[in-house]
Amino acid sequence: MIKMVPLNTPHTIRLPVEVIVGKNVIEYIGKIIAKHLEGDEVTVLTGPNIRPLYSNTVTASLMDYGYKPHVDTVFSPKISEVERLLTQTPFSTSAVIGLGGGKVLDVGKVLAYKLKKPFVSVPTSASHDGIASPQASLEGLNGSHSIRVDTPFIVIADSHIIASAPKQLTLGGIGDVLAKFSSVLDSRLAQSLGEYIGDYSISLAEMSAKLVFNNLAQIISLSDNGIRTLLEALISNGIAMAIAGSSRPCSGSEHLFGHALDLLTSKKILHGFTVLLGTKISLALHGEDWVEFSEKALEAGLPMNARQLGVPPVYVVRALTFANKIRPDRPTILGNGITLEKARKVIDEVKLV
């Protein structure tokens, strides 16, 4: 049975106190944090590949403003990694800084949440909308694909660093934003069924998707303006989730399909790519124009069929038949499930295999 959120149920909206986007802003991290945080110890989490590239810049800036940085490396996106870090993080730390990609940011968010400390998000790639969101996805969460945490206290996104990241990661971020064309449709469907989802949060997610869709050429050129456009869209999606009190406006049937596909295949596929395939399906099921969407995304270099991702057709069909069971409490266009016959029909229709 689907449980609807009562219209009079309150929720708290927590937004970042400051968001900074631009070239070389990482060099000012000490100054930025000092405006908002007291204390002299901070924990910096980073990845093994990112640490030699940028950690010295971050720690030098922090020390210039009197902070004593404790640097640790995140090795896996698992809840067990958070538990390990809990035993090693100084009790006196005044904030947790996540310097890295999505895995580092998610581990950092959960660690900060458990420590009841503010989290500072410093992304080094623009691969998904977790940059500023109050959600975190880790392995080992008892079947849950994401958990609610606090919204990042500060977001510092260096467009120069992000433009230097592998282009595939940027394409993944584009895919995650474009997936909002689907999640917005599912959110409005849920509204019609009585679920409360704030209109503003839905509009913000939709605006982000349109912004990226209309500026694809500029974004894939990796120009500073293009990277800023993508970053602003990803950050806006995080804000939309904070306003909604859940991931609802940014996660619909396309995410359910993406998660189902992840469960079936052992291949490590970027999140933005799997939800992008799910968006084609969702648009078709909603009766929307998936053809123009697919053609323009394909022109931008985004994978628009399972073959491009190396996923066998049988997995695509199976994923669609049980995707609704990933979040049975969340109404989407998938309804109570898609039959095998219908799954094959829609997958053929949108040329997904």
So, the CATH homologous superfamily of the largest domain? Answer: Dehydroquinate synthase-like - alpha domain
The CATH topology of the largest domain is given as: Dehydroquinate synthase-like, alpha domain
Indicate the radius of gyration in whole angstroms. Answer: 20 Å
Helix percentage: 40-55%
Structural class: alpha/beta
Based on Cα principal axes, name the global outline.
globular
Note the beta-strand portion: 5-15%
What is the string of SSEs from the N terminus onward? EHEHEHEHEEEEHHHHHHHHHHHH
Low-confidence stretches: 1-5
- Spatial strand order of the main sheet: 1-8-5-4-2-3
CATH class of the largest domain: Mainly Alpha
Q: What number of domains? A: 2
Per DSSP E runs of 2 or more residues, the count of β-strands stands at: 8
Question: Average pLDDT, to the nearest integer?
Answer: 94
| CATH architecture name of the largest domain | Up-down Bundle
SSE arrangement:
Elements: E1 18-22, H1 29-34, E2 41-46, H2 51-64, E3 68-73, H3 79-88, E4 96-100, H4 102-115, E5 119-123, E6 135-136, E7 147-148, E8 154-158, H5 159-163, H6 167-178, H7 180-192, H8 199-213, H9 216-220, H10 224-244, H11 253-264, H12 271-285, H13 290-299, H14 306-309, H15 313-322, H16 340-349
Parallel strand pairs: 1-8, 2-3, 2-4, 4-5, 5-8
Antiparallel strand pairs: 6-7
Helix pairs in contact: 3-4, 6-10, 6-12, 7-8, 7-12, 8-10, 11-12, 11-15, 12-13, 15-16
